[in-house]
Fold each of these.
Amino acid sequence: MNRLLTSDLWPVAAKLSRKAETRLAAIAYVTAETVKFGEGDVLVVDATRKAITSGETTAQVLLDAHDAGAQIYNCPDLHAKLLVMDDTAIIGSGNLSGNSPNLHECAVLTDQSSIVGQARAYIQQLRESSRLLTRRELVALTKLPVVRRGGRGQGKAKTRLTKKLGTRRWLVGVTPIDEERMSAKDKATNERALSRLSTKLAKCRDELSWIKLTGSSKMRKDAKVGDLMIVAERSNKKTNHLTVFPPCSILSRANSENSTFLYYLCSSRKQDIGKLKLAELLRAAGSKIAPSLRMVRELTPEVFQALERHWPKR
């Protein structure tokens, strides 16, 4: 499981923390109890006098976590934002603060054992170089005067956050489209979407790829920005040969009256393959899918990750 969390960062973290048996964290500033720490948990935080009196860290939250059984360590100059909950890690930009849900944050959610193991080791290193706070010290911190600084997003209208990214994985077969035969509405929709995306990405329009979905397929209904996909394209209408492009992300989606357009960039670090090689990779990944021109299939995370790992490089 590897996901990029955006506006769903703290809902996902809170849900995982409620189910976890142990919680280890190195988070620079803590002012909220979104993640509740308890018996046997560890929280490394900037609990310096400066952080407390400026309101960047709230002493009472730390005291509550200590009284629930957690060990609280003071690490001056800490800037990490890392959570390990059982066999899952969240590594990203967000402090554990009441203001974080109003900011544009992102984090990687992973259960890859090597990364989770390194995250645990990193927190242990921080513990060894930090000072364990006693209850008496935490109580003293709660008595310090606090003059909160105007942090980003505070006192302003709530930021319009990015949408939650899609997490599905697709395998889709497509046929080259004669754009001159598309309807006027489809042409206009595609033109606007291509112009907007090429400008935002600072890419030439020829560098952008797209597919057009019609009918009532599951992919047309459910595919979202952030979903991953493998596109198998027939080179022309007179052959059944498929050129299969490396895994990529859906960057944008545009809906017309009777069509849906999905936009993506192909990887330049991995090579295109053919139908036979794709079939070989699918079998090695434990999938029984037979590649075909008109396939629109949703892949499991395990199969997709296996395909990514074994995809040939250029």
Amino acid sequence: MKLYGSPTSPYVRKARVLIKEKNIPCEFVIEDPWPEGSPIADKNPIGKIPVLEYAPGSYLFESIFVAHYLDHLDGKPLQPKDAAGYWQSQWWQALGNGIIDAVIARVLETRRPAEKQWADKLAREESRVQRATQTAENAFNGGRYLVGKSFTMADLVMGVALQYIDFRYPHDWRARAPKLARWHAGITGRRSFEETLPPGFVKPA
């Protein structure tokens, strides 16, 4: 198998962390989807990353779908087995994916020429991040994991999402979310997170 994408993309990183967690034999191939003529378009007609080549010439795309496939390869998905826990995990994943979307939207706006940047757009995305992190703080019970007593996809997605804030929109979200900050410090200390940090990432003091 081969995973195609950028080492700075949080969508790709979700798959990379999962591959590390499950020790899946999978080659990571760095490819940029943005340039004209990018080979990514030949693998994913939508032109987005990650793309997973699960068999020669056969590809999966969209980060949630790719993660779902990888998570179920060994028949032991990182999901709670009880119905209540399963849906709680899905809730956390939706929140984490929403944070990633908001931070990326903010990043793209900041990369426009200064005179064309839309202040209301930046404020909107920053508000989304703040509301989401506060919602997570309020919902979290303060344990070692977000759901149940073991590492699940909820921890993976939220862990990547909050670390992407640190990477692309660094600010002191931890002051407003101390329970979440303590949990995050433990989760991101896992080997799977340490070995997939984006180039140039600076850990918060």
Amino acid sequence: MTYDALLLLGFGGPEGEEEVLPFLQRVTAGRGIPPERLKVVGHHYYTLGGVSPINEQNRALLAALSEAIAGLGVAIDSVLANRNSPPFVADVLADLAAKGHSRVLAVATAAYSGYSSCRQYREDLGIAIEHEGLGLELRKLPPFFDLPGFTDAIVELLLAALPAGLDLAAPGSRLVFTTHSIPNAVAATAGPDGDAYLVQHRWVADRVVDAVAVAIGQRPEWQLVFQSRSGPPSVPWLEPDVNDVLRTLGADGVTDVVLVPIGFLSDHMEVIWDLDTEAMATAAEVGIRLVRTPTVGTHPRFVDDLATRIVAELRTGSPVATEGQFCFGGCCANPRREAPVVPGLAIDPLP
């Protein structure tokens, strides 16, 4: 299969105060989140004038990818579509069909396997195609956590963020990687064999630590923690929470923590609020100097490697994934219901 359009899939976010609550209602639909909780979360957006940075960050990523793809000799129409805010997936697909496109490659702005980070985007596409009756063929690129440029960018940004005099190998220092918490039951079904969400994050963290060890001459102590839990207390989610870990480290005499958000591609709201605001406040309370490294964003190494993988698919076309491969039909099962999905591709990440 060859393609005539590239679709970058984003989570979406409000771009004005009047959009905040409708956005949050779409994000939490069917999850039983009380209105009071939405108002609390809405305050996070209101502190930024009701504008989430994520849409502009994804527009910048699309522009950078388009330039890199063109630099590799491929010309293709590239557009952005969002799950939870305009431009919505169904509207963008309808527009592509109206313009005569018929074969679309989709790339999600999430690097790891999991329901919310991978399968739900496949469902967004599948539902739109089924409901709108569009004559489009779609395929989704599998998770790309294993791109060398992804890890290289994290390492470069981490080392550049270290303040003068901070010794990561010292007993009072700690390297802490963070990602979005998800329900334990959802984590257990991630990937073709389960647990891929955790396995992939630990794989990335371990390779970052290897590179840092080469740079500083000693392997630092590190751990993977979680953030941004939103479910009811009765449902187990991945732990430990970043704030709990900071309190424990402070009690243990740790004075310097380098916090590396490997679970996110850009510095959006959950990074700005949950880390730069809440985690930073927790660290100050317990006497820890907290350094938060940037996300990969449009770092050239990351963009170039992702563009190279996209171009390889645009040029050759891969078979649809089958059982046992990433993004086969039942991969990363929907925890609530069955929904149509577009196929993933048989491009297996490394682990």
